[in-house]
């Protein structure tokens, strides 16, 4: 079978460089274009790419996707910054190109994907839930896309189970002390030199605690997920959020 032709957008970045190397090493994939900031995206089309891996910055990703989807190119997106409004616009763009698959993956690490899945399963059993995400200090967004997605999954499961917000008597304190709030779930963001990407999901009930922790010590942890997504995205037309949807998790 012919190798899938793949382009990487954001090829000079921390993730982009690793993705370029991983795709080059895969026998069933052919890297046909590397796009960096300032390069023309039409290079992707001219190179005949079937799939684009998008690893840029929140300020660039929506415009890149608008172009790529409009050209009928399947997209595997790791860049953060997608919210309900931008996802809605993307879904409309994808609907105008039936058959085109787009994966928005808040995290490609299998550990992080499983942590989010387990957190959603655990959420209905506990009175309290909070998320702590810890990252390298070069990260430009907070909270992390993974933490937002985790909190959304927990909030949906709690709401379905008829649970309200976690108990919290806080009345006084400094702004930000209780973190950001996504769907009633508090998220605390740590930025520390030496870290890569880490998350702790805390659940509490009277007399007990459950902690789900995932650690990416190196960006190689994201590569198997990216390769799986590249190989699968054509089979999932429309916009999918979360690599878990490609993994047959129950
Ligand atoms: N889904 C996942 O598993 C992961 C997602 N990420 C996310 O991926 C994104 C990239 O992360 P890093 O590689 O660490 O950032 P980075 O800052 O090292 O790389 C981003 C690259 O994109 C380039 N860029 C910006 N606009 C561009 C454009 N319009 N066209 C082409 N290139 C452009 C920048 O010049 C830079 O080289 C971030 O949003 C990050 O949160 C990071 C790690 C894992
Ligand atoms: O910027 C990063 O590094 C990461 N970004 C993603 C996020 O915001 O969740 C994924 C992972 O946490 C690494």
TrEMBL record:
InterPro entries: DapB_C, DapB_N, DapB_N_CS, DHDPR_bac, NAD(P)-bd_dom_sf
Recorded superkingdom: Bacteria
Top-level class of the enzyme under EC nomenclature: oxidoreductase
UniProt KW rRNA-binding keyword: no
Known catalytic reactions: (S)-2,3,4,5-tetrahydrodipicolinate + NADP(+) + H2O = (2S,4S)-4-hydroxy-2,3,4,5-tetrahydrodipicolinate + NADPH + H(+); (S)-2,3,4,5-tetrahydrodipicolinate + NAD(+) + H2O = (2S,4S)-4-hydroxy-2,3,4,5-tetrahydrodipicolinate + NADH + H(+)
UniProt keyword annotations, A-Z: Amino-acid biosynthesis, Cytoplasm, Diaminopimelate biosynthesis, Lysine biosynthesis, NAD, NADP, Oxidoreductase
Span of domain Dihydrodipicolinate reductase C-terminal: 111-246
Positions that bind NAD(+): 10-15, 34, 78-80, 105-108
Keyword Amino-acid biosynthesis carried by entry: yes
Binding site for (S)-2,3,4,5-tetrahydrodipicolinate: 136, 145-146
Residue span(s) of domain Dihydrodipicolinate reductase N-terminal: 5-108
Pathway the protein acts in: Amino-acid biosynthesis; L-lysine biosynthesis via DAP pathway; (S)-tetrahydrodipicolinate from L-aspartate: step 4/4
Pfam families: DapB_C (PF05173), DapB_N (PF01113)
Catalytic residues (UniProt): 135, 139
Main location: cytoplasm
A GO MF label: 4-hydroxy-tetrahydrodipicolinate reductase
Subcellular location: Cytoplasm
E.C. numbers: 1.17.1.8
Function: Catalyzes the conversion of 4-hydroxy-tetrahydrodipicolinate (HTPA) to tetrahydrodipicolinate.
Quaternary data: Homotetramer.
Family (UniProt): Belongs to the DapB family.
PANTHER family attached to this UniProt entry: 4-HYDROXY-TETRAHYDRODIPICOLINATE REDUCTASE 1, CHLOROPLASTIC-RELATED (PTHR20836:SF0), DIHYDRODIPICOLINATE REDUCTASE (PTHR20836)
Protein name per Swiss-Prot or TrEMBL: 4-hydroxy-tetrahydrodipicolinate reductase
